[in-house]
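Quick start: what a row looks like.
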Amino acid sequence: MSEPILTGRVEAPSRARQLRAGPVTCLLDGIELRDIRRGSQELANLLYVAVRDDRWNTLPAVVDDLEVRQGTDAFQVTFRARHHAADLDLSWDGRMTGGADGTITVVMEGVAATSFRYNRIGWNLLHSVQAVAGRSYRTWGGDDGLVHTGSFPMAIAPQGARGGRLTGMLEPFRHMSIDIGSGTTLTIDADGDEFETEDQRNFADSTFKTYCTPLQRPAPRLAAIGSRIAQSITLSSTGPTLAGATGPGAVSCPATVSAAGDPDPDLIRVVVGTSGRQAMPPIGLGLASDGQALQDRDAERIRALAPGHLWLTLDPTVADAADRVATAVGDARSVGAALFLELLIGPGGAGIDAVPVLVDAGRDILSWVFVRAPGDGPVDYGTPSEIVEVARVRLSTVIPDVPVGCMVGSLAPLIREPRDPILLGSLGLPICPTVHRDDDRTVMENLVGLDDQVARAIDAMGGMPVHVGPVTLATI
């Protein structure tokens, strides 16, 4: 009997079904299309509907009447989906068709059962960074009536803002063509709304996402009872059908391929290259969120791992803040590790005056302080430098030799506008590959983009220290 595969979930992961539309293949995963390819060439990474309420919560769908029909070189999928939570109640009929010419069309037709407010409802189309970075695109059909051309960026494109609202990476459009490479061109035709694209590496994903509705439009929006929401996206492609799958499970590595000199000329010799050795950075551990002290047995086991530090996230305004610091100091001493402190400061610096007294108990073991605070405006530009400096001055009398730096919630606010890294001092950059989706496949795919995110943060900090963490697999 084979060993069970452990995934960290109570339920088994869903099984995707392969569908074919002429020269194009894809995987049906629930009511989502993944890994859409023309031969070995990726056309799209994922195509799905997202329903986001007025607080940006993603509401899952309950699916009924799923029917899949696969012919020799065409398919049709139909189903009914419902998203229901609090006041939001939306049902929609879905249809996915793939034709013999390789065209794939997805349609949603929904009706609001209640009046509700929402931030986004509609189709989302993802392209992996590996497939389209550096590739040229052309968009048209937006409200400005213009044709826009350019290339998908290799480096992470900042998510900008204009007039107090976020903006997409590209101007809004209804049609896009992408030079996928190897002589293949993908055309995307959308109906029912305008779409725009963002670089999701800002949030630790490894994809470019095309979505509706443009962020410059006011949100949340109101769906009146009985109102209809209908959208469609059609993907069509031209080009050769390349043999040799590079789909799920394919692994590539630096290699040299040669047939010359081999006894059998039909054999191809592959020599896998070796990478230079690099020193591992110190790795720390986060403290338990329940504030309970480590038991002796646990401390002994953690001490054997020789962690570089323990990480405490602290809101100085909570009633048990002093107890949490005392517990963290005791835990750090028991495992022989330094203590890193992330301070959650409120708007306008609320709670910062209480910090010097709180950290006094750990002055001999505290090694770094990161300040995280919201800005004043509607757009997040990261922890204000002024708040970091205030904390630095307040703490200089208690822990004069401990560096005080900046903490951000993600890369996006750090690179939204140029910032002076000298004023920030250092950076704490959290990493979480489940920001938007937490299915196993997406998590594994997102690992590819983490290198880009860290490299972009190092570049933005201009030589100032960058601490990567906490690294979490938080549920969304």
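That is the whole record. The CA atoms of residues 259 and 265 lie 6 Å apart. The helical segments are 129-132, 296-305, 321-335, 355-359, 385-395, 411-415, 421-424, 440-460.
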